[in-house]
């Protein structure tokens, strides 16, 4: 991928408030209008990541009353189903456009949250990962690490782990597919669509970053479709079964 000059974070922020917002809102949505084959394929892969995450979380027991931090929540693809199961969700994203869309979809799903006493409307906030604070039973961060180079990802994983009491679920694009992915992306998008740099991560590096802060990987999964690749891992503090 091309290196887009300037500070990565500024580029990412601008992208996800503008063209990236439009693109990803479409991919994560459910309309088939104006969605190409590649986008549909990515939609399926991402939906599988969300489903696998929900399964992982449910395996730890019912989600009702469990506090979850959804870091980099996008349009609320995970936050909304979690809330539907009674989890107490704090969802945030660096992009105000994403947060507004997530909020809109949550309102659409739950009304004003008053009709079902079991569902607690997620609390949405515009916030970057770095400024997250507090303690949550569970912290989830799906498909966000692609915006973090390995050096920064390591610090971010430590930070996310420090917010979690019981478990941390992360998904990231595996480095193994790097060249193939680049090749395919290059073939399919010869135009100027690479608005942000993509950082892929070796599973071992992510695991090492977790171990450094006293966490270990309990479960792992791999989700692949033709154009979507994600490693999904669940980590727990060392000493916790
Ligand atoms: N986690 C969501 C999901 O799986 O549906 C969204 C994934 S989307 C590919 C990546 C999201 O990360 C975007 O919504 C983007 O705004 C957000 N993001 C990127 N860098 C971030 C940062 N430093 N802090 C918070 N959010 C960030």
Detailed description of the structure:
With about 240 residues, this protein is of the alpha/beta class. It has a single domain, classed as Vaccinia Virus protein VP39 (Rossmann fold). It has eight helices and seven strands. It has a seven-stranded mixed β-sheet with strand order 3-2-1-4-5-7-6, sandwiched between helices. Helix 1 crosses helix 2 (about 20-30) and helix 6 (about 150-165) packs across helix 8. The chain is globular and about 50 Å long. The site of S-adenosylmethionine (SAM) has 19 residues, from helix 1 and helix 2. S-adenosylmethionine (SAM) binds near residues 24, 74, 128 and 147.
Q: What separation lies between the terminal Cα atoms? A: 40 Å
Shape: globular
> How is the main sheet built?
7 strands, mixed
Mean model confidence by pLDDT: 90
CATH architecture: 3-Layer(aba) Sandwich
Instruction: State the domain count.
Output: 1
The total beta strand count reads 7
Name of the CATH homologous superfamily: Vaccinia Virus protein VP39
Order of helices and strands: HHHEHEHEEHEHHEE
Kindly provide the name of the CATH class.
Answer: Alpha Beta
Q: Number of helical runs? A: 8
Q: Any idea of the CATH topology?
A: Rossmann fold
Strand residues, percent: 15-25%
Bound molecule types: S-adenosylmethionine
- Oligomeric state, counting identical vs distinct chains: single chain
Helix content: 40-55%
Q: What is the CA-atom radius of gyration, in angstroms?
A: 17 Å
Strand order of the largest sheet: 3-2-1-4-5-7-6
């Amino acid at each position: 991928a091309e290196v887009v000059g300037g500070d990565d974070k500024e580029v990412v922020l601008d992208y996800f408030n503008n063209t990236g917002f439009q693109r990803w809102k479409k991919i994560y949505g459910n309309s088939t209008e104006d969605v190409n084959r590649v986008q549909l394929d990515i939609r399926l892969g991402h939906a599988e990541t969300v489903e696998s995450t929900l399964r992982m979380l449910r395996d730890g027991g019912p989600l009702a009353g469990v506090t979850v931090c959804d870091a980099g929540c996008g349009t609320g693809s995970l936050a909304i189903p979690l809330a539907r199961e009674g989890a107490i969700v704090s969802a945030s994203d660096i992009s105000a456009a994403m947060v507004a869309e997530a909020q809109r979809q949550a309102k659409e799903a739950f009304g004003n949250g008053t009709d079902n006493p079991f569902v607690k409307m997620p609390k949405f906030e515009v916030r970057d990962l770095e400024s997250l604070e507090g303690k949550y039973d569970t912290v989830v961060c799906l498909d966000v690490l692609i915006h973090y180079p390995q050096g920064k990802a390591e610090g971010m994983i430590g930070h996310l782990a420090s917010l979690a009491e019981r478990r941390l679920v992360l998904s990231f694009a595996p480095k193994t597919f790097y060249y193939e992915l680049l090749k395919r992306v290059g073939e399919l998008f010869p135009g100027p669509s690479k608005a942000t740099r993509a950082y892929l991560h070796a599973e071992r590096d992510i695991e090492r970053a977790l171990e450094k802060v006293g966490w270990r990987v309990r479960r792992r999964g791999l989700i692949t479709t033709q154009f979507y690749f994600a490693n999904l891992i669940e980590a727990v503090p060392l000493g916790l079964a």
